[in-house]
Design brief:
Layout: E1 3-8, H1 16-24, E2 29-32, E3 41-45, E4 48-52, E5 65-68, E6 73-74, H2 76-88, E7 97-99, E8 103-104, H3 107-120, H4 132-140, H5 153-173, H6 182-197, E9 201-202, H7 204-213, E10 218-221, H8 245-252, E11 259-267, E12 270-272, H9 285-294, E13 306-308, E14 310-311, H10 312-322, E15 326-330, E16 340-349, E17 352-354, H11 361-366, E18 368-375, H12 392-405, E19 409-413, E20 421-423, H13 428-434
Parallel strand pairs: 1-10, 1-11, 2-5, 2-10, 5-7, 6-8, 7-9, 11-15, 14-16, 15-19
Antiparallel strand pairs: 3-4, 12-13, 16-17, 16-18, 19-20
Helix pairs in contact: 3-4, 5-6
Length: 435
């Protein structure tokens, strides 16, 4: 049975968690394939709000096995806290499986993250300072520790002592900071984290493949989004992993032939957090309206997000990079109060109209949006449960996006709650599985 990937098509915060949660009822495994606790997602069920950082969205369903794949970097203390919070709220977490190959984030990663960002000054990247980048860097230079190392205290201590010699020297000589005692760190993680996390650590590649071989439905969810991808995003203002659909294969241990549908999640407007180019950014009252109506503040950090009109140049590129088979449009209701809506259909760069995303970063920074103006609907969409209940202006907006992107829209979100969603077109791949 093939798997489905959910990927963000912008700079993150598109509402992937809500869509994952909605689709999870027909799934058996939900697999997180990259990123760390620098990216949170919020799910509202009834009157309850769940802000998750590492645990996959499917944990809210008792029939689902939530999986943290090998491509994720994990702060064991954060994962423990998240499991404890979920358990305290009545959510059973014993089904969670964590890849033994997932790399660990330590306090020195977080300290280096903050120090590097501070040293960059006005050229800072806008990192969340959660240690994700330095942990992936250690993974790349082959000095990282993995979840499986927690299971062997001798190996764990040896590896930690070795890497701490270099980290402490860097902290002292480059940043004039005190280092860490590797024995104190080892004792803390082995005594506090190992007993809690050991039952969850396993061979998740085997788990995922056996599920597919048994004909079960597997959903792969990424953190961040397409234009925060290390290779294909607005570098260097990106994350340190590959959120694009291709990253799901590496981060979960699957081959491309195991994936038959890729759902791109697109907010009805655009947001980004931190530094970097943003051609359609609104620095006026309309931008403030989007922030207020869309509650555009980071799940983890509380940082105000930058807001702007929907960018179809980016969306068309995301369709290509991810081989999107369908689109989910979220937060359409946030546009309820606007008399007019703008959609970026092209860029103007040095007097030339450009309809494809430029490969050169300088061109992206100089790009001015070319807008198509459409009428707003000036009424609330929050109670719509069927496409026939949408005003004609909202219907025209969605049809325009569908034609421009060249991909069918199957899901539309009209509010933050699980129930505030509707089917725009049937999703052939998902409905085929559920027959």
């Amino acid at each position: 049975m093939p798997a489905t990937v959910i990927v963000g098509t912008q700079w993150g915060d598109e509402g992937k968690g809500k869509l994952t949660d909605l689709l999870a009822q027909d799934m058996h495994l939900v697999v997180r394939y990259q990123g760390g606790h620098n990216a949170g997602h919020t799910i509202i069920v009834g009157e309850e709000t769940f802000a998750l950082q590492l645990v996959p969205s499917g944990v809210l369903y008792e029939h689902i096995i939530p999986v943290i794949g090998n491509g994720v970097v994990i702060d064991p203390l954060v994962l423990m806290d998240e499991l404890a919070i979920l358990e305290a709220r009545g959510v059973k977490t014993g089904r969670l499986q964590v890849s033994g190959n997932a790399h660990l984030i330590f306090p020195y990663h977080q300290q280096l993250d903050a120090l590097i960002e501070r040293r960059l000054g006005k050229n800072r990247l806008g990192t969340t300072k959660r240690g994700v980048g330095p942990a992936y860097a250690d993974k790349a230079i082959r000095v990282g520790l993995r979840m499986q190392d927690l299971l062997d205290p001798l190996i764990f201590r040896e590896k930690l002592e070795m890497v701490m010699r270099e980290k402490n020297a860097t902290l002292a000589k480059v940043y004039n900071r005190l280092g860490y005692d590797p024995e104190v760190l080892a004792e803390k993680y082995l005594q506090e984290c190992r007993p809690v996390l050991e039952p969850h650590i396993t061979d998740t590649v085997r788990t995922v493949h056996e599920a597919l071989e048994d004909g079960l439905n597997v959903l792969l969810e990424g953190a961040q989004a397409t234009f925060l991808d290390l290779d294909h995003g607005t570098y260097p203002f990106v994350t340190s992993s590959n959120p694009v659909a291709g990253g799901a294969c590496v981060g979960a241990g699957l081959g491309p032939r195991h994936i038959d549908s890729v759902i791109g999640v697109t907010k009805a407007y655009t947001t980004r957090v931190g530094s970097g180019p943003f051609p359609t950014e609104l620095l006026d009252e309309q931008g403030d309206t989007l922030v207020t109506a869309g509650a555009e503040f980071g799940t983890n950090t509380g940082r105000r997000r930058r807001t702007g009109w929907l960018d179809l140049v980016m969306l068309r590129q995301a369709v290509r990079l991810n081989s999107l088979s369908e689109l989910a449009i979220t937060k359409l209701d946030v546009l309820d109060s606007f008399e007019q809506l703008k959609v970026c259909v092209a860029y103007e760069i040095d007097g030339q109209r450009v309809e494809h995303l430029p490969y050169h970063q300088s061109d992206v920074h100089r790009a001015s949006p070319v807008y198509e103006v459409m009428p707003g609907w000036r009424c609330s969409l929050n109670d719509a449960t069927n496409k026939s209940q949408l005003p004609i202006e909202a219907t025209d907006y969605l049809r325009f996006l569908e034609v421009e992107a060249g991909v069918p829209i199957t899901f539309v979100g009209v509010g933050p709650r699980r129930s505030q969603s509707l089917t725009w077109r049937p999703s052939p791949s998902l409905f085929r599985r559920c027959e």
